[in-house]
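Task card 7
Instruction: Convert sequence to structure tokens.
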Amino acid sequence: MIKGKKLYEGKAKIIYETKDKNLVIQHFKDDATAFNNLKKAKVEGKGVLNNRISEHILTCLSHCGIKTHLIKRLNMREQLIKKAEIFPVEFIVRNIATGSLTKRLGIPDGTHLEKPLLEYCYKKDELNDPLISREHIYSFGWATENEIKIIDNMTIRINDILTGMFRAVGIKLVDFKIEYGKSWNKDTEQKEIVLADEISPDTCRLWDVKTEKKLDKDRFRKDLGNIIQAYQEVARRLGIMPEETNISEVNFGRTIPIKFKKK
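Output:
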């Protein structure tokens, strides 16, 4: 697949065009950001891990009937995906209270919620991705009521699948955020809603079941160190075996070997 011009660059990924107007290439960067890009660093190899982990998770979700933008992984850092019109909304699922939820509402950190809590945020960096309601989404035309109904059902289903997947390997799925878009389905000749972006330790909070050790981007947010080792541990538990490479964690001056299994 020939990579064309750059269409978009975000904090963690770059999107490139291809000769097919309905397909693009998604490149995973090594940039680590937190607090709406106020804290930034390069963590060499993070993009490699996120690419592989997200591919594995989206493939599993696809096998469970969830429509995603993923076509296939192209190499260590890139995926071929469906081009999608992204809804300007982040969908957040919380199973355990932590992070901004505890700060906003004064709930004790680590509180297990009786049922998954679904929240919506407006995707706008300059506004710090504010929390919004369904009524905001409908009023400003960011999505229709029917689209949100479809997305909400998909999101709860995804949470069920991921909770079981991670629990089976000794990890608590604390919370996660996902994005959706509308892509062209050549079989039905109409647009359909698909899960987009990525699902990885960058977009999930993942705690070890026994120790509650953090295996996600909170290691960067809270200066806990060992970021790559944590992401690698998630990949290891998920049974991913990759191409062998060496990467260095720039923040901590170490070189850490990574091995992935080829499919």
